[in-house]
Amino acid sequence: MKSIPIILLGCGGVGRQLLHHIISCRSIHYKQGIVIKVVGVSDSRSLLVSDDIMLTGMEDEFLAAICHAKSAGSPLKSPLNLGHCRLFTEKEAVEKIVATASSLGGTTGLAVVDCSASAETIDVLKHVSSLGSCVILANKKPLTCAIEDFEKLAFHFRRIRFESTVGAGLPVIASVTRLISSGDPISRIVGSLSGTLGYVMSELEDGKAFSEIVRAAKSLGYTEPDPRDDLSGMDIARKGLILARLLGWRINLADIKIESLYPSEFGPDSMSTEDFLAKGLSHLDEKLKERVATASLKGNVLRYVCVIQDLRCNVGIQELPKDSALGRLRGSDNVVEIYSRCYEKSPLVIQGAGAGNDTTAAGVLADIIDLQDLFA
Ligand SMILES: NC(=O)C1=CN([C@@H]2O[C@H](COP(=O)(O)OP(=O)(O)OC[C@H]3O[C@@H](n4cnc5c(N)ncnc54)[C@H](OP(=O)(O)O)[C@@H]3O)[C@@H](O)[C@H]2O)C=CC1
Ligand SMILES: N[C@@H](CC=O)C(=O)O
Description:
Elements: E1 2-9, H1 13-24, H2 26-31, E2 34-42, E3 46-50, H3 60-71, E4 85-89, H4 90-105, E5 111-114, H5 122-130, E6 134-137, H6 147-155, E7 160-161, H7 172-181, E8 186-192, H8 195-205, H9 210-219, H10 228-231, H11 234-246, E9 257-258, H12 273-280, H13 285-297, E10 300-309, E11 312-321, E12 333-340, E13 348-353, H14 357-370
Parallel strand pairs: 1-2, 1-5, 5-6, 6-7, 9-11
Antiparallel strand pairs: 2-3, 3-4, 8-10, 8-12, 10-11, 12-13
Helix pairs in contact: 1-3, 1-14, 8-9
The structure holds NADPH dihydro-nicotinamide-adenine-dinucleotide phosphate and ligand LTNE7NMQ.
């Protein structure tokens, strides 16, 4: 039986769903001759590591107890007495993860899976990667910091996977990398890459209030922890940047033209996420209602679109015909059109659910399994 030891960074909506998927896929993986051994789980404050990283990892009942505790808002340490593991503080966590990567690196190997929403994981990811560990990300931030950091991670292209960073479980990254590897030059990528903004735009057409829609998108697990990351266009810009960097463009977030759906006085420097959701959002209802109505009079709809072409990446609202590929999108679906020499007139189109904990975590799990050949 092939064993894949993992340390999970981040035990929020996506991280917990990943643990549930790992548990529920045990028999499928067993038939494939694979067992995923969760040896560590961290959140923003602490890290739990199994006492026996070499043999067993954490038991499924203990993983379920961790998920239960975290979804109830309790700290990671609360189920500590139910499992055979040790707790490390935030300060000790990086050292412990690196030590685990060093000890498992020479034997079974280790995969560090980043389901956090933090830019701070970049250093530990670079470190474990340099020690030979695999890195799998749902978190876009480590790939959208400095270009040098992206290149350091991407340099180990056989050991890194980040399919869920763009289009959640949709095979967008895989399609782009396959085209690149086959020497088919990509000239343009255009798409609706935000599940949240797709959902917001299509629900606005149904006459609902912007504030209600955003709150619903958050409860459905589509938004980033702070929905302003989506509404500012920043999250979709990160996805655009990851795709542009995959094309070999050495660009940064600052090079991307981004249109925000809210003015700066509602930004994180002026109010908390809770205040924005409770009070700030409703100030935007009327303006967006009018914008949707004006487009509708011309038979058009609004879509938040990312265009990557000619060394430029722009993200913002476009008014599009209702019956266009983007105009027909409903709910949190994404659509991505990739134009290349082989797909010049008729683009390669990828479409489907583009956000949500279930599909995102499924994409992460598929990435882990995709790396199975690197494990003993
Ligand atoms: N939801 C979706 O549809 C998709 C999400 N993603 C990405 O998945 C990631 C996770 O999203 P989601 O689960 O919704 O976010 P949540 O806010 O629900 O969870 C984030 C988790 O990360 C933890 N965390 C924060 N900082 C650190 C750190 N430095 N080290 C380790 N853990 C840390 C948090 O800890 P604590 O519990 O203590 O706050 C929390 O457990 C995000 O990067 C998001 O962009 C990607 C594609 C789609
Ligand atoms: N908040 C994101 C989640 C996936 O990256 C989105 O809405 O698309």
